[in-house]
Model the fold of this input.
Amino acid sequence: MSAKKVVKVDDIKNDAEGIKCQVEKSLYLVNEFLSGLMCGKCFPCSMGSYEARIRLRSLMEGNGSSDDIQQIQRIADEMLISSMCKKGKDVAKYMLEWLDTEVFSSHAAGSCPAQTCKALISYRIEIDKCTMCGDCLKACKYAAIHGEKIQPFKSGYHPFEIKQLKCVKCGDCIKVCKPEAIILVDANVGEPVEV
Done:
C-alpha cells in the first residue's frame, strides 16, 4: 500500500505558475483548495472560499464589478485572521497578494491584460492587412470565419470576418495567419489589446 501524497498550498501555487492571468490563478487555487485541501471545519474557509470562487468566476466571465473585488478582499482578510489551519491562512495570503495588482480592477472593467479570459476578448480580422488567402477559413473548425478566398480575374469579394457568436476563441486562426491580420481586442470595447 503506497502512502498518500500530502498536497500543500505551495504545491498548488507552483502548479498554477503556467497560468498567465492572476484572476484565473486565484480561481485555480480556490478550486483546488475546495476540492481537497479544505477540511471544512471552520466557517471562514468553508463559506468564504465558495463565495470567493463565485466572485472570481464572475470576474473571469465579464460579469464582475469592483464590489466583487471588495468582497474577495473581505473574505481573504477574514480567512487570514479566523482560519484555524495554516492551509486556509495560506490561501488567504495568496489571494491578498494577487488582489493588489491592477489585474483584478481590469477584469472588473471588462479587460483581461493576459488575454486569456475568453469572455473578455474577441478575435477580429483587420481588413486592410488581410490578403484573403483563406488559411484562417481552413483552420477554423467551428465555421466562425466567413468570407471568400481571392481568385484571379474575379471581383466583388466578401471580406473575411469572424462571427463572434460562433467563435470559441481557440486561437487556431491566429496561428495560421501569415500577414498577422487577426488580432485580439477587448470584447466590450473593440479596441486592440495591448501586449
